[in-house]
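Example record used in the benchmark description.
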Amino acid sequence: MTAILRSEPAPELPVEGSAAPDEARAPRRPSLSPSRAADFKTCPLLYRFRTIDRLPERKSLAAVRGTLVHAVLERLYDLPPAARTVEAAQELLAPAWADLREEQGVAELFETAQDDAAESDASAPESVEAWLSSAGKLVEKYFTLEDPTRIQPHGREELVEVTLPDGLLLRGYVDRLDVAPNGALRVVDYKTGGMPREAFEAKALFQMKFYALVLWRTRGVVAAQLKLLYLKDGDALTYAPDEAELVRFERTLQAIWAAIERAVATGDFRPNKTRLCDWCDHQALCPSFGGTPPPFPAAAAAAAGWQTSLPVVELD
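Model output (structure tokens):
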């Protein structure tokens, strides 16, 4: 089993509802990340469109706001502990936004920004000022959940990856990793949405258990705490896994990966229609909505390292 644990500059920052940071860079070979495992569980065809076809998806104001807040909280810990104040965090919004608005597709979100004549239109986009103010409120809410002057992160936006004995490569980016003097690990993830109802807590913790498994396999230490911070509500969800649970979770990931490999080998990625389809960018290509998926890109899949039994057709 091989393992890597290193801190890297943040890739395209994490946003809710779009590709997560662990998808921002192509892996060396096919791998499994928390977001892509969740995609396949939700809808195999969505997994194919995002991972194999790599179809573009629209950005949203909510998603980009999540990106901005993550950037501010990451940069906050570049400051000396005593300087990590609410005011300092708010001052980080402008430079983080200056970087973010240069990314493709971001400026277009505000081309029809809400003006005085559109205030009664609930579907009209927010103005830049109102949008930035909402991001600032989320940043401020963070300080009700933690005291950053008392925290010295071991890593931020940290790439963690491990190759399991069966060859499965797990990889992802942890928002923040804290290490206590006694070696205890705490994995922290920032969420700009609301806290899930109790019935959906297990789904929310899937990502965190993924990170806990990789850290256990790389460091030999079971994380003492997995912590999800929900900035919209000012609430936190914490969980303490144990070794037996991580062993079971590893088997779950191996089963998901085996199903993905079968789907790639045959090109058979079936849609799974749920309420989440309302937010999907690919309805026009989905059989559940009368669409037809494009031919399976066997050549691209093979070039990316996937094993496929489908013929590779060279197109003119």
